[in-house]
Amino acid sequence: MMVVLLRVVLVVLAVLSAPAGRASAQPAASPDLADRVGGREDLTFADLVRLVAPRIAASGEAARLRHIGGEEWRSAGPEAAELRAFTAVPARSGGSDRMVLLLDFGEARDSAAGFAVLALFDIAGEPRLLDAADVAFDRRTSFAGPVRLPVGEAGDLLVTRSTHFNSSQGYAMTALILLGGDRFELVDTISTLDDRACAFKRTQRLDIRRGTAAPFADIRATVTERTAGTAEPCDDGAAVPEPGTRTIAVTYRWDAAERRYIADSDAFAVLARENETRF
């Protein structure tokens, strides 16, 4: 056990995260582990990671870490407890400043998905780990635009996306995760699929925006699907979809009685089933 923990700490302290992407559009950063957190001279990102890494390395602890999607998604933990990359996002919960890290531990031990831990920290005084959950729904998981949306008294909304690709299809599962009461709660997952064949190319792009309602803002998510023909010859006999554009939109509204966001339709569930027939 101690050997494994020591290995984790040494790997963690040696890892540098990947370069930040689209920094101008997203409030997420990919700092070095040695960088200071929140302007504090006495706290680094390595200090925060040390609060999480032993839980992942300890025997059985990773298996007990909840998955944000529920029991059917939970894995036995990563193949190797080695931190590969991390991303940081400042956030607010219940009117307090918090720090959120998305930690990539690579592949899960018992599934084709990855193992990505979303961790919430109180950094006002002595740093504390407040909540952690596996948010990997596929092989690679990262924050996705807009990353963080302030939605009022309910807290911040965080957006992650899990993906994998093959030669003709790209799969994505976007998770809308509410940060309220110092705990992560799943609002919904949205499945999108890009696919192409010899005669067409089809893309699905997701846009997430905050509404104007108060004190809890609506969340509006829209998938725009575009299908275009190609000039390539196609003689496989498969049906070719008509070129065109369609939109699938869902609005999530805060339900005061349920204390959660509720979708105004099942349109994304219908889209997910439709996409499954194209796999």
From TrEMBL:
Leader peptide range in chain numbering: 1-25
Taxonomic superkingdom: Bacteria
Swiss-Prot/TrEMBL keywords: Signal
Name the UniProt record assigns to this protein: Secreted protein
